[in-house]
Design a protein that fits this description.
The protein is of the alpha/beta class. The chain has a single domain, classed as TIM Barrel (Alpha-Beta Barrel). It contains 9 helices and 8 strands. It has an 8-stranded mixed beta sheet. α4 links the parallel β5 and β6. α1 runs parallel beside α3, α3 runs parallel beside α4 and α6 packs parallel to α7. The protein is globular, with a radius of gyration of 18 Å.
Amino acid sequence: MENSKIGYVHSIETFGNLDGPGIRFILFLQGCTLRCKYCHNRDSWKLNESKQMTVDEVVTEVLKYREFFNASGGGVTVSGGEPLIQLEFLVELFEVLKKYDIHTNIDTSGGIKLTERNTSLFAKLLTHTDLVMLDVKLMDEEGHKELIGTPNAHIHELGRVVAKSGTPLWIRRVLVPGLSDSETDLQATADYIRELNRLGTVEKVEVLPYHPMGEKKWEELGYDYPLKGQRIPTKEEIEKAERILKAGIE
């Protein structure tokens, strides 16, 4: 292999089973444009504060586990942070992985704006991508700014671009009681999912219940955790959200 693009890597998980089909090699990339108040990887926000790895080095690690991918229908998931910040690295990585017939998945919050330059890069990336998992945090823009720290129109547009490309989508929603669980916003999200499914294929909708796992890490890094004391959703709240959102693909 003679690939030299360098990526900023936060961490690696070699036997994940929650981030795409089958057993997954999960590459968490460094850097994020979002500022989610419930983020459990607070140390992933700054791009350069991480280990650097070349595409060759990542692929060498991935190939150690290929027999497990083949047996389980799994593959490689790239998450973050926001993996799309490192588009050039991702394009080269996925090009190489597809030469080995490895299933490729991007776990993204859509946290980049598609400029003229990176639109072509993103289109190229999607030709080597088997699945995109898009986290749709909120439809309401003001609520999104408050909880996530940014506007959200560019995130919704990125979802449309993925759908139009023909790349299968999984839509995910982190459910935070009192912040991202209003029936109005859930219904609006279901409408958005319905739109994406008309443009392409939404294979699955997942509700991810809020958990306070990030609190300890925030405090260890010297930051005040913004959602201290926030409760987790009840079983009934989770089921209600799932019912509303999944209507978008029924």
